[in-house]
Amino acid sequence: MGRARLYPDEPSGPFPSPPSTIEDREGRDIEIRAPGQLTTDLDAVVEMYDQFDPTDRAQGIPPTGEDRIRNWLETIADESVNVIAHHKPNGDVDGDTEVIAHAMLVPDADDPAAIENNSDIEWELAIFVLQDYQQAGIGTHLLKHLLGHASDVGIERVWLTVERWNNPAIALYERVGFEASGTESFEQEMSIRLE
Amino acid sequence: MNVLVGLGGSDESVKTLRQTIDRTQDVGDDLTVAVLEKPESKRSQGEMYEEADSLLSEAGVDADLVRLEGDPGSALVDHAEQGEFDQLVIGGGTLSPMGKIQLGPITEFVLLNAPTTVKLVR
Ligand SMILES: CC(C)(COP(=O)(O)OP(=O)(O)OC[C@H]1O[C@@H](n2cnc3c(N)ncnc32)[C@H](O)[C@@H]1OP(=O)(O)O)[C@@H](O)C(=O)NCCC(=O)NCCS
Q1: What is the model's pTM?
Q2: Are the C-beta atoms of B45 and B76 separated by less than 8 Å?
């Protein structure tokens, strides 16, 4: 592979671990969970991405159309680490909850099944919040819980790329401790070290 | 059409060349293949040159094959400006483990500076 990726010297954290229920800035109850396997919640997550506004896609993901979304998630599901945010509509005690945000880490390895320690490899991050739920603080909470969960399972190095003009996302990443890690092109690469 | 294709030395470069060769055969374009100096890539400039040479001869395509020294983006754009090219072809980005399309700094430089139409091959 190409050049080694740089990471901040100082680790960031601690971050909260799922599960948690938080109230967003609109007063909605949002439950954040980490499914053991993405496959358990796959249908609900596919449904969320199917509702995702294509103008908010980032570097080609999520793909559009249910089949392609499912295919994409199945390809990365096996070894990925996920957190999912559900909204329980008010007053609905045991009714349906809806997936409204998803964040994940995907191992950067040729043979993910052969990984012994999660700290041996680097993990790529992505996060998506459904349009109606954006700018209510959910992205920040979800990201922190993903990093908390990552730290719980021994992950130390996390990186991502983000379109250089995606200011909301860059602001979010910087706030939790990500730093720009080189590469000047359409995408900004950023990385964080977890404690 | 007079086509210039730029190759770094990645698998993406090989795919780009294969597709460009197919297209050349279909429509009878004139083809120039420029092998760039990109030390961090999988194949050295010499290896990429050899591989391009054999792909071209296997396909029976008569193309100009050149080596360009120096910064890959600017060397390629310079070469495009010197010749009478109608189109410049480069690789269209790699996929991250997540499936995100990533365009490198060379692609960005070429897109912003090339005098011709630029084609990205996926
Ligand atoms: C990036 C994203 C995950 C942020 O989620 P969110 O729930 O809206 O984030 P938050 O509400 O926690 O906002 C975090 C900060 O981002 C900034 N921000 C969020 N949306 C913004 C917008 N539209 N314009 C400007 N700043 C914005 C604010 O600084 C906000 O800080 P505040 O809480 O002080 O207002 C969400 O916008 C999204 O899913 N975007 C589309 C997909 C994407 O680009 N993902 C990132 C690449 S994988």
Answers
A1: 0.90
A2: no
